[in-house]
Structures are given as C-alpha cells and as structure tokens.
Amino acid sequence: MRTKLIKTVVTVFVIFIMFLILNPFVKISAGERGVILNWGAVSDSIMDEGLHLIVPIMQKIVQLDVKTEKHEVQVLTYSKDIQTVDATVALNYHLDPNTVNKLWQEIGKDYESRIIDPSIQESVKAATAMFTAQELVEQRPKVKEEIKKQLFERLNGRHIIVDDFSIVNFDFSEEYERAVERKQVAQQEALTAKNKLEQVKMEAEQRVTQATAEAEAIKIQAEAITQQGGRDYVNLKWIEAWSKGGSHVPQFITGEGGANFLYNLNSK
C-alpha cells in the first residue's frame, strides 16, 4: 500500500514537472492578438488579451501586435511634367484584430515588405503622375488624399487598416529647383517693374490734374480781368507787390515836387 502511494506521488510530481516544462499557459498582452496553430495549421479562432490555456506540443501561438504602427518609406517617382520627385512618406496603420489569423495564413510575418511597401510605392507613383511638380507643392493636401485613396484600394482585403497617411517631404532635381528660383526672381522683377510703372502713371496723372487746375485758375482770372476792365487785377498785383516786403499798403504817396495823391483802396 505504501509503495503504491509513493508511485502515485511520484507520478503526480512528474506530471507536474512536465506541466511546468511544457508551459501550457500563454499570455496575450494589451494591444496584441494570438494566432492559434494546431499542428501547424491556422485555427479559425483568435486569442484576445489575457491568460489562456493551450495544449502543449500540439498547439503553438503566434502573437501579433495590432496597435497603430508608423512606417516611413522613400519613393523615387515622376510628376505629370516628367520632373524627378524624391518623396518621403509615412503610413500609420494597424493589423485588423479580427483577421490576424488570415493575415498569418496568407502573408505571414513579412507583411511590411511583402504588402505595405509595394502598396505605398505604387500609390505614390500613381498619384504623383497626376500632378505637375508645381501642383505637388501647391496642392499638397489634395495629393495626400489621392495617395491615401490609392492605399485604401490596394490594402483593402489584405487585413491591414490605414489610420493615416502623411507626406514628409518632396525633393526635386537641382535643375528644377534652379528653374523655380529663376522664375521667382523674374516674377519679383516683373512685380517691381509693374509697381514702378503704376507710380509713373500716377505721377503723370497728378501733373495733368495740377496743370488742368492751373489752367482753370488762369481762365477764371482772365475772365475776371475782362469783366472788370482790368482794374481789379491791377489793384491786386499792386497790393501783392507791397505786401511781399511786409509793409502795409499806403493810402497817400508823395511824388516829386511835393505832389501828393490818394489811393482809394475801397474803390471798385
């Protein structure tokens, strides 16, 4: 009886040790999913976050991260006007947590190099070919949306979800950048010349306006002289001549030989 008990205890102990060695528990961390492989075959079931019990030897668990990832890619492409464009873009994506088993079965672990990179390359090239080099710079938000749309179409059904897409940078050839710089200088010079022309025209208009005003004033004076027989004009000039020296206009003036005459300022 005692021997049988010892055998039972030893058996239980061995089973316990084997249990620990084989490790029948698996922990799926936050932001992960577990793909179950039964004798290497992908199961239809997916393990969520938490602690799970598996059948050792028979079952193997592949843990995949389903949190948002950022993937940056450099793409050499061409614009609509055949300008070389060195584009740097970034994709934010995550694996579809409900179909990670299909992803593993159809693509495996190299989904970035096998699916994401080619999709980005094709999408960027297709989109940039729709815009000229200048439009790529001036209509950047529109270019971004077009690339994002292309990515959605290519990654749809591939168990990869696009969260966001951004254009990090567009670099053009040195020849094109020099051409753009020359164009900007020419535009600035043209603007300066236009401003100078506008200034000259404005000054000419001012001179014409001034000349017209002076001519009108002369005309009015001439009409006044004609109507008054010239007397008021003579009086005005006589008064102005005296006033220039800062003196008051005299009402009595003594001539040679003691002759005096009175100038009537109130005469009309």
TrEMBL record:
Gene3D superfamilies: Band 7 domain. SMART domains: PHB. The keyword Coiled coil applies. The keyword Transmembrane applies. It comes from the Bacteria. Pfam families: Band_7. Keywords: Coiled coil, Membrane, Transmembrane, Transmembrane helix. GO terms for cellular component: membrane. Residues 176-228 form a coiled coil. Residues 23-184 form the Band domain. The chain crosses the membrane at residues 6-26. This is Band 7 domain-containing protein. It comes from Candidatus Kuenenbacteria bacterium CG1_02_38_13.
